[in-house]
Amino acid sequence: MDTHRITGAARQAGGRLRGIAGRAGHDAALRAEEAYEEAMGAGGRAFGDVRERTLALADDALESGHELYGRSMQALSRQAAVHPLALVVAAGLTGAAVAWFLSSGSRR
């Protein structure tokens, strides 16, 4: 549990206690303070929940990305082993294209 959720729950409980005291004494200021504390507590708890879920989602996305990268590198390695000449030709064409783009930009 993170601090936002703990703080939110404590504020919410404090607001409820103030509300009980306000109702017992019919004090409008305590009831208003109760509403404020409960709202702040609920907001803090909601923020903590969203933060926790967002971090879990980011961790899952990172793990999936690492897994997909590993699989794609394995597939590329297998294809390079089966067709090494095609890999050399593709690298040469890529180098020629980069050189052509760089040289055509410097002529202007």
UniProtKB/TrEMBL annotation:
What are the alphabetically sorted keywords of the record? Membrane, Transmembrane, Transmembrane helix
Question: Which residue ranges run through the membrane?
Answer: 81-102
What protein does this entry describe?
CsbD family protein
Organism, by scientific name, is Ancylobacter mangrovi
